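Repro:
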Amino acid sequence: MWAAQLDCFRQGYRVIAPDLRGFGKSDGANDLLTMEQFADDLKSLLDASRVEEPITLCGLSMGGYIAFQFALKYPGLLSRLILCDTRAAADSQEVQMNREVVASQVLEEGPEFLVDGMIEKLFAPISAQTNPEMIRQVKEVIRNSSPLAIAGASRGMAQRIDAQPYLADIEVPALVLCGSEDVITPPEEMEKFSRKMPRAEFHVIAGAGHMAPLEKPELVNNLIQEFLANTDV
């Protein structure tokens, strides 16, 4: 998911792209994976990697939920925050119930049922036409993900805190990015919460959906590069 950012920023920065607990090649999945647990895992990874200076943390979608939790729990470890296609508000009761349905179904049937339904929501329509290989790769990631991890993360997202009351307390520079075609976390919603953050700047990524860094890597990388170069920490 972050391949284009790794290729771009490893030239001038130390870049760490973790597999979250239960995903990729990481173990530790269970039937409830909270955003706080993921944030604690990131802290442990930084300790194990001997990273002592404050970091720039970048999170997309669920990664944004984790980033909010990290910012609230470990503010001294954070120098900048980059939030892509995510939301600050907690889930509504309806969304919480749907996440439990997804968790139960994926444990019973596996992740195949998620593939097509998720793809339609994740990407701008133009992406499916212009980059079918990207779509194919993401489908394979979903198919190969642990059902237990998907279920645990789904339940963990449903239980996450509402970050809105704490936005004014996040005083580090923040870059907030949203795809213009994002139907999951629309630009209007993200712009609204970004205004509550004292040092946030908001940008819309034209032609991207919910996966802006993957769909429009050059545009996203240019904005990140400018943000890193021009923010005082």
